[in-house]
Design goal:
The structure holds two protein chains of two kinds.
Chain A: E1 4-9, E2 13-22, E3 25-35, H1 38-45, H2 50-69, E4 74-79, H3 81-84, H4 89-100, E5 104-106, H5 109-123, H6 127-133, E6 135-140, E7 145-151, E8 155-161, H7 165-171, H8 177-198, E9 206-209, H9 212-221, E10 227-229, H10 230-241, H11 245-252, H12 256-276, E11 280-283, H13 288-296, H14 306-319, H15 324-340, H16 342-345, H17 349-361, H18 373-382, H19 391-402, H20 414-417, H21 421-439, E12 448-455, E13 459-466, H22 471-480, H23 482-488, E14 491-496
Parallel strand pairs in A: 1-4, 4-5, 6-9, 9-11, 13-14
Antiparallel strand pairs in A: 1-2, 2-3, 6-7, 7-8, 10-11, 12-13
Helix pairs in contact in A: 2-4, 5-13, 7-12, 8-12, 9-12, 10-12, 11-12, 15-17, 15-21, 17-19, 17-21, 18-19, 19-21, 21-22, 21-23
Chain B: E1 4-10, E2 15-23, E3 27-36, H1 40-47, H2 52-71, E4 76-81, H3 83-87, H4 91-102, E5 107-109, H5 112-124, E6 134-139, E7 144-149, E8 154-160, H6 164-170, H7 179-200, E9 207-211, H8 213-226, E10 235-239, H9 240-251, H10 255-258, H11 272-286, E11 290-294, H12 298-309, H13 320-334, H14 339-360, H15 366-376, H16 388-397, H17 406-417, H18 429-432, H19 436-455, E12 466-470, E13 474-479, H20 487-496, H21 498-504, E14 507-512
Parallel strand pairs in B: 1-4, 4-5, 6-9, 9-11, 13-14
Antiparallel strand pairs in B: 1-2, 2-3, 6-7, 7-8, 10-11, 12-13
Helix pairs in contact in B: 1-6, 2-4, 5-12, 6-11, 7-11, 8-11, 9-11, 14-15, 14-19, 15-17, 15-19, 16-17, 17-19, 19-20, 19-21
The chains are: A alpha/beta, B alpha/beta.
């Protein structure tokens, strides 16, 4: 088995891990880390300066030699938040590729989250129990705080809140140091108040934090233990408030950079502990390169937090007051039709999942207004952020929902044309199926007991068994089936099965 | 207890079903709005009776509606029929037959005046007249109702046989219409209006509101031709010369050509012209240059009237100011806004506005825009934190604010949109769609809102008492509190004063005095 490698352009450093697959484990061969604060550049300027680019290239050239040395055939180089939001992303990636030959992939936030969770599940022994009790993850970065909550059968909630340490410093830089504390507390407090309104009302037993600053905090507060008790953190905060940055740096032997961020970061963590009802912070060390390697080695189990994600999908529907029985039924029927039409549509399991969600959310736009509600559904869905869904996925789901009624996809619909060729066909196919499923619960009374599809040479027959009634469904089925025959080039008929 | 109410309106062009659910006697929400275009008038206006095919069509539609009502477990039903039933010689027989066949009892055949009253009720419950007198023109399939009044009372109420289906059937038979047909119709309109002149001109009014499906569609086409955005709005303002232009254009086209008009409802391809000609006549008759089209009318008034008859009067029916505010609160609550912060920012905005209006040329009417925008500036947060100002804009644009027309709603949406982040740019389409005067309103009011929002950035209502003074290049806000309590706000205002500086070329400084 030859060696594999993962490179990660993180916010504070560039890392590489080289490993080798040994049975069902990875054996680490080499690990490298060079400090480079790309995240700070990104946050302050929204672009990576030529100097930082040059430094990145130099580091990657070193990595490149290591790859050759270990005869690595397969590697992935990834970048996350530090590169995700910069304005000169395309040029940055191109320069790196030209000068080092390394192709860097940008990992979306939802995918990053997914990989980290899978990595933790693999590394932490009793991860399942921890999730059962509920767990909060927090990472205070330069600009944002990444915050997520996970609990079995409850939720999977995640948000990015703009109260990172550096941002607080930047936004309040005109406030004198003397008053900074007060202003900063208010600032954090008001954002937490806003977050409180939109987050699930649950408590979690565990609180995990990662990132370089929390490491510093742990070393200062409880050098022997793994966790930082809330009480000690609060005491430390009180002490911090009485010290200047210079004193702080000297006392704890910190770089000024860190000392500067310690106060806001501590305050933010205290707020989150209070918010989630936890009494200590467990410091975890998530190696993102490790996650990538595990994925490359095929160690991650498929199916990611399925239960929790479906739960959160439903809670999004609840937030927009959807007709839940209708939504669930249309979702279920869509999937049934999808499965039985497999020979016709030629779509993947991933598309099945997107359809399931589009069907669940197709009517949420009614919350805004009944007329043109398919367009409002589109708007609301395209703004959904959910772990495990990439922005491309979200766009497809939103567009499928947009076409659940009224106009068929048209050349001049921007949301449709901007999707790209392949996705357009997927959207049309899924929307055609969704329309049928929606028609089958037109009365919103869940009258369909079962369906069974026969695919014939020049016609598809959908045999439907109703519990009772079903006249409204039948009328609407005929009205809503034209997209289907247009997309699949074959007519579909509903036949009521009486027995 | 009554929870769900259904009303059915059997018109000469279409039959509509509306089912609503009462919300704690304060309001109602529509669960279902169904329409079948079955053109009952066509036969009645020609032959004077319902023939067998018309009867079959009514029966089929009402059977369907009955089933929907049963499905929705409606507690109370009211069915009314208008012009076609008023006129058909066999109306009573048909009514009884339909009742027996479908189980729908008590079909009321209402008079033209009652129809006018209900339309009026529908309009004033969805449009803030603000002490103005309005002429409501409702163009249906068989009749056209003219009602003049204000929120308190109706002073004139006339029903004319000038519905779209009827006029088309009588006069505009050819495809495309022939010029003598147009002439005959215009002659007919002249003579009808001559007949009512004395009574109709006795009452003054400030504005014309046009309702009815054909007229709404007519307006939609004008707007679609004008701007290419196909927003489906509740009100639109339309000018006489646009009405004349579109009438001419439609008159010169065959049905097939008309179908290419943007926004045209193909079910109205024939009758749309008649509706246009009637509103044109009304505007000319009264010498008015514009009318406002409103997509509320008979069915909405019928719903409210029906609920009122059950002994439930909604709070906003007593007071139109209340109606407007009530709706803003309702929208705010729907999106879970932070009430205190919204109220506080509104108060601060309005007080800034009052102190600045003379020096900076704020119009008194803007007060209302600022108030609504300040109340609703954060509602987009319900969708997500990031870009929530844009979500606020979207939600306001698609809300049913009362008391503001479409243009004003757009202004309010834009003010809310600029309460944070980027200043207006070339690439911001919503903003660029405004005319220059409206852009200026947005610029000025959004810069005030930004300052007010910064003054309550902590959401803790720290600032109550303040006075504004203007120096050469500075706007100074003096707050009656020690400076040491205000660092957060001082910092906030110095940042969010950016738009004010951009608009008025003055720095904004917050100071504590105590």
């Amino acid at each position: 088995m030859s060696a594999i490698a993962a490179i990660d352009l993180g916010a504070n450093s560039i890392r590489m891990t080289i490993a080798e697959k040994k049975e069902d484990k990875l054996k680490i061969l080499d690990k490298m880390e060079y400090p480079l604060r790309l995240g700070k550049e990104t946050f302050l300027k929204r672009y990576i300066s030529p100097e930082a680019l040059k430094e990145t290239i130099n580091i990657l050239k070193v990595f490149r030699r290591k790859l050759v040395e270990y005869a690595v055939k397969r590697y992935r180089a990834v970048a996350t938040s530090a590169i995700r939001a910069i304005d000169n992303q395309d040029f940055f990636l191109e320069q790196v590729r030209l000068k080092t030959g390394i192709n860097i992939e940008i990992i979306e936030k939802s995918e990053e989250e997914r990989l980290v969770y899978l990595g933790l599940a693999l590394e932490i022994k009793d991860f399942k129990d921890i999730v059962d009790q509920g767990v909060t993850f927090a990472k205070v970065g330069s600009g944002n705080v990444e915050f997520s909550m996970l609990k079995t059968n409850e939720v999977f909630f995640s948000r990015s809140i703009p109260i990172g340490g550096l941002r607080l410093r930047e936004n309040l830089k005109k406030v004198s140091e003397e008053h900074f504390k007060d202003a900063m507390e208010k600032y954090v407090h008001s954002d937490i108040k806003m977050l409180k309104q939109s987050m699930p009302k649950i408590k979690t037993k565990n609180f995990f934090a990662s990132g370089s600053l929390v490491k510093v905090l742990r070393q200062i507060i409880s050098p022997s233990g793994k966790a930082i008790p809330r009480k000690k953190l609060e005491q430390f905060y009180k002490e911090l408030k009485t010290m200047t940055i210079g004193q702080l740096a000297e006392k704890y032997d910190l770089a000024n950079e860190y000392a500067d961020l310690l106060l806001p970061t501590t305050e933010v963590y205290i707020n989150f502990l209070e918010l989630t009802g936890c009494d200590k912070i467990e410091c975890i060390n998530v190696s993102f390169t490790g996650c990538i390697l595990n994925q490359m080695a095929g160690f991650f189990k498929s199916g990611f937090m399925t239960k929790q994600i479906w739960k959160s999908a439903i809670s999004i529907g609840d937030k927009y007051h959807f007709d839940k029985p209708h939504a669930l039924r249309v979702s279920e029927l869509s999937v049934k039709i999808f499965d039985q039409l497999k020979p016709i549509h030629n779509l993947s399991i991933k598309h099945r999942y997107l359809l399931k969600l589009a069907a669940l959310w197709h009517d949420i736009g009614i919350f805004i207004k009944n007329s043109e509600h398919h367009k409002h559904s589109y708007y609301l869905i395209s703004n959904i952020e959910m772990p495990g869904l990439s922005s491309q996925d979200v766009q497809i789901i939103a567009t499928v929902a947009r076409y659940h009624r009224r106009s068929m996809p048209k050349k001049y619909h921007l949301e449709y044309t901007s999707l790209g060729n392949k996705a357009r066909v997927v959207v049309s196919k899924l929307a055609a199926i969704l329309r049928l499923a929606d028609a089958l619960d037109r009365s919103h009374k869940q009258l369909v007991q079962d369906i069974n599809i026969d695919i014939e040479d020049n016609e598809i027959i959908i045999n439907v068994k109703f519990n009772e009634g079903g006249w409204l469904e039948k009328i609407h089925f005929d009205k809503k089936k034209n997209l289907f025959s247009r997309v699949f080039g074959i007519n579909i008929e509903l036949i009521e099965r009486l027995k | 207890m009554i929870k769900r109410v259904a009303v059915v309106d059997i018109g000469s062009n279409s039959v509509r079903l509306l089912i609503s659910e009462l919300i704690e006697k304060k309001n109602y929400k529509i669960l279902i709005d169904e329409k079948d275009t079955i053109r009952l008038g066509r036969e009645v206006f020609e032959k004077g009776v319902f023939g067998s095919s018309s009867i079959r069509r009514i029966k089929r539609t009402l059977e369907k509606f009955k089933k929907i009502m049963d499905d929705y477990e409606v507690d109370h039903v009211r069915v009314v029929a208008t012009a076609a039933f008023r006129e058909a010689a066999n109306a009573v027989e048909v009514k009884n037959f339909i009742s027996k066949e479908t189980g729908i009892k008590n079909i009321e055949i209402i008079s033209g005046k009652e129809e006018g009253r209900l339309i009026f009720l529908g309009v004033i419950s969805n449009f803030d007249l603000k002490d103005k007198q309005a002429l409501i023109v409702d163009i249906g399939g068989g009749s056209c109702e003219l009602v003049i009044g204000d929120t308190d009372k109706i002073s004139y109420n006339e029903s004319l046989n000038l519905g779209g289906t009827r006029l088309t059937k009588f006069f505009l038979k050819s495809n495309p219409v022939k010029s003598y047909e147009l002439e005959m119709l215009e002659n007919h309109l002249d003579s009808v209006f001559k007949r009512i002149k004395l009574a109709a001109k006795k009452h003054d009014f400030d504005m014309i509101i046009g309702t009815g499906g054909s007229l709404n569609n007519f307006t939609k086409i004008i707007h679609a031709l004008d701007k290419s955005n196909g927003k489906n709005d509740m009100f639109r303002e339309v000018e006489l010369n646009d009405v004349e232009k579109l009438c001419e254009d439609i008159a010169s086209k065959t049905f097939r050509q008309r179908l290419k008009l943007p926004g045209l409802d193909k079910k109205r391809v024939d009758i749309i012209l008649a509706a246009g000609l009637v509103i044109k006549k009304v505007m000319k008759f009264y010498g008015k240059n514009a009318f406002t089209s409103l997509s509320k009318g008979l069915k909405d008034g019928l719903m409210i009237d029906t609920i009122n008859r059950l002994g439930i009067i909604f709070p906003y029916q007593h007071d139109s100011e209340l109606l407007k505010e009530h709706r803003i609160w309702e929208i705010g609550h729907r999106y879970n806004f932070e009430e205190k912060h919204a109220e506080n920012v509104t108060e601060l905005s309005i007080r800034l506005f009052e102190q600045l209006k003379d020096d900076f040329g704020f119009d008194e009417r803007w007060h209302e825009y600022l108030m609504a925008a300040a109340m609703l500036h954060d509602i987009g947060y319900y969708i997500s934190h990031s870009a929530h100002h844009k979500h606020s804009q979207y939600l306001i644009e698609n809300s049913d604010l009362i008391g503001y027309d479409e243009r004003e709603k757009d202004i309010i949406a834009q003010i809310a949109r600029y309460h944070r982040k980027s200043l207006p740019k070339k690439t911001h389409q919503g903003y660029q769609n405004l005319n220059n005067g409206d852009k200026e309103i947005v610029n000025k009011l959004a810069s005030v809102l930004r300052i007010a929002d910064a003054m309550d950035r902590s959401h803790l209502e720290t600032i109550h008492d303040f006075r504004v003074s203007i120096k050469d290049n500075e706007l100074i806000i003096k707050v009656n509190a020690p400076e040491s309590d205000l660092f957060f706000e001082i910092e906030g205002v110095s940042k969010k004063g950016d738009m004010f500086t951009w608009v008025f070329d003055k720095k904004v400084v917050l100071k504590g005095i105590k």
